[in-house]
Amino acid sequence: MKIIINGSIEEISSGNSISKILEIKGVVAKDMVSVQLNDEFVKKEDYDKLFPKENDSIDFLYFMGGGQS
Amino acid sequence: MKKFSSKSIYKRFLKDDPHGALRMPVYENNAFEAGSAEDLEAAFAGKRMAHVYSRISNPTVEYFEQQIKAFAGAEGVVAVSSGMAAIASLVLAIAKSGDNIITTKHVFGNTYSLFSRTLKPWGLETIYTDLTDLKGVSSLINKNTRAIYFEPITNPQLEIVDIKKLAKIACDNGIPLVADTATTPPYLLDAKEHGINVEVLSSTKYISGGATSVGGLIIDYATYDWGQNPLLAGDAKKFGPLALLKTLKTKICRDMGNILSPHNAYLQSLGLETLVIRAQLSCKNTMAIAGFLKNQPQVKEVNYPGLKSSDVYNLAKKQFPNGAGALLTFSLESKAQCFRFMNHLKIIRRATNFNDNKTLIIHPASTIFSEYTPELRSEMGVPETMMRLAVGIEDIEDLKEDILQALEAI
To answer: What's the complex ipTM?
Structure first.
């Protein structure tokens, strides 16, 4: 299915949790990143419970680097 | 891993060290190279876990923040250049012109200066009250109040407020409770359990491991809904309870350039590992010295919350089960006697700091609070006859001997 990750359309198999998608995208330190699903903040305890659907939008941001957002 | 001593030592690095180093190296460099222009763009946008510039973030500083986060059980930590930088950054993040903060005049002298002098021309109002008068605190809160700010053990008055009751007032009114915990860092005070939302503290003190370096920490437990704060409401929609952390990291501290230096982060990371054993010994020594001073005929008054004779003993025991800190105050008959006592000390050093491994003494009225009028000093609870002893980890018998010979010389 197609979902939008950090503004780019990407092909991700359906049935993946946010946790799994972060893993696929190489987010190695999950406690260092904040995640939004369709512009809504996602609590860490929900990473395994939420399964994005076709055309959903996921954004993740590290509070390091330049931190532009 | 649940115990403080273990948590402070076993925090893993975010990325494996290529040489298998067991201690986080000091990354004493300014810029970090990206593999491609796209990677650099992603790093600047916060979409890639990478440091770009040490004024903004640095691996050694980040590791120290992660250590503190694990140690305190917090959600977010920002390490800055001093305790005052922590307090100032936090206030700038949550309050603007026309807003107010409720606190007491019984705070660290430079904190009082920050609130009453530095930030006042920018339109920030500070409402001073007696925080032990909980009904009075409630009556002062208005729609522009952005925080209740306090010290769990005030320095140098060593007063204590019932933190859970103060936290309930803050919570019921939708404002955060902010505590300067320099004298009672994590291990001595479980801030989250007591309802404190954010800790700001000087890591120069207990955490630095023996007065090695200056630093400060902002510790956020993510227990406050920052959507209630006008400055953070926008970020709260996207970042939820991490809105304060996001604002500090990507605006306030980045723009002011006040993050901790890598070298100081290294020293304080090392210091954190021995915090528990140093705190245990210095609290034990403080209790022993307080009892010893009470039995000296020249000493008019001894104040230490851990003393059974203290008015706040029961509250101190409940709130600080691992020890009521390593600060005590005691009084002689006059300022002149205090100076003579201090000048005759041979082991105890005359200096303005606390939680050094060495025992330090200072006369607060003529130093930290000297810029204030006698009337204001009186309101601040800093009399001329009082000295502050910051007890270290020396052998207790040597400290007693030093105090005794100096008392005999006054």
So the answer is: 0.84
SS3 state of residue B166: helix
Dihedral sign from CA coordinates of B371, B376, B379, B383? positive
Q: What number is the average pLDDT over the span B147-152? A: 98
Partners of B126 in the β-ladder: B101
Pairwise CA distance, residues B86 & B253, whole Å: 9
Q: Which residue of B has its CA nearest to A68?
A: B45
Q: Tell me the pLDDT tens digit for each residue of B94-111.
A: 999 999 999 999 999 999
Dist. CA B74–CA B184, nearest whole Å: 16
Query: Which chain B residues touch A if contact means CB-CB below 8 Å?
Result: 14-15, 43-53, 56-57, 62, 69, 76, 237-240, 242, 245-246, 249-251, 254
- Alpha-carbon distance of B17 to B125, in angstroms, equals 48
Helix axes B396-408, B275-294, angle to 10 degrees: 40
Residue B362 β-bridge partners: B388
Under an 8 A CB cutoff, do B249 and A64 touch?
Answer: yes
From residue A40, alpha-carbon distances to A43, A55, A56, B293, B405 in Å are 10, 15, 11, 59, 67
pLDDT at residue A66 above 90?
A: no
How many residues are recorded in chain A? 69
DSSP B378-395: HHTT--TTEEEEE--SS-
Strands (DSSP E) along B89-187, which ranges?
100-103, 125-128, 145-150, 177-180
Alpha-carbon distance of B77 to B100, in angstroms, equals 24
Q: How far is CA B30 from CA B26, B231, B330, in A?
A: 12, 31, 47
Is A65 in contact with B50 (Cβ distance < 8 A)? yes
Position A65 scores a pLDDT of 59
Contacts of B62 in chain A (CB under 8 A): 64
- DSSP 8-state secondary structure symbol assigned to residue B13: P
SS3 content of chain B, % helix, strand, coil (to 5): 40, 15, 45
> What are the structure tokens assigned to A43, written together?
């609590």
Q: Which residue of B has its CA nearest to A36?
A: B238
Run of H or E including A20: helix A18-24
Q: Which two tokens stand for residue B198?
A: 């954010």
Confidence check: pLDDT of A68 > 60: no
How many CB atoms within 10 Å of residue B357?
A: 15
Burial of B183 (0-12, 13-18, 19+ CB in 10 A): buried
